[in-house]
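Continuing the series of single-chain predictions for the mutant panel. This is the parent chain; the variants come on the following pages.
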Amino acid sequence: MLSRIAESLYWIGRYVERAEDTARILDVHLHRMLQDPWTDEEQACRSLLGVMGLPVAEEGASLPGVVERLGLDLTSTSSVLGALAAARENARGARETVSAEMWECLNTTWLGLAGSRRRIEEGGVHRFFTWVRERCSVLAGLADATMSRDEGWLFLVLGRSVERVDMTARLLSTHTRAGGSIPSWLTLLRSCGAWETYLRTYRGSLSDRHAAEFLLLDRLFPRSILAALVTAESCLAELEPAAGTGRAGRVGVGTDAQRILGRARTDLAYRSSDELLADLGPVLSGLERTCSQVNDAVSARYFRQTAAVHWQAGAVA
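Parent structure:
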């Protein structure tokens, strides 16, 4: 597969997952701020912008400002609209690999972005974020239903899994910055769409320990960090050709990305729940760094590395 196509599919997976997760985070946190009169709005907005990696202006942070920067800024791929527009742009570069249904879904979503402000004014932010989540879910379903399980699909799922680890770690960081409380864990579970599944798994018992276990370590819930790490590792293992019975096939792993992901997965899987709660902040920071390192390693291994062209005087007659 051409590295250009692989890179486009990887970033389609990342951008669509980023748009969906950002919409989930904003929807639940804004709803909580509006419902709770005791919440310090400026402090909550500052915390949310900080966790999402955006600088906070000196004059302060406000609810409309957060919606504008994380939801509607078309020039930033950190926002919902910017990520969806970037996914559609990458799909244009991979039209020969993306199915017609996926392209139509991305194109229809992109055309619908023009009416985002009107949709918010008429129906509120919850209606807009629900629309975003539905469009992202339709695209994920079409990818699973219409793409062959070849290298293209592996790169798309790899990008989606790496982004899911990063966004879930950022989401959990909002809890550590807030100081930790049971209502905050409830918010986090709802942000991940995990509330009903969590209730069935733990039979209605809500505690810090169980919620941390579920969002970080659950092997069966697809949005947990451990499940996403395992999926990303599986994609990388399938992308690498078999190394045979020589030393390369018997010792260690083949790529830096596999090594980085394997360390992160092992470090997480063998921690107890009490250890996780005690070291939650450093663990989440480490996972965010892991995603950045994996992204660099995947780019260096599979994607085109464009070198600068140096013209030499007299080289052309």
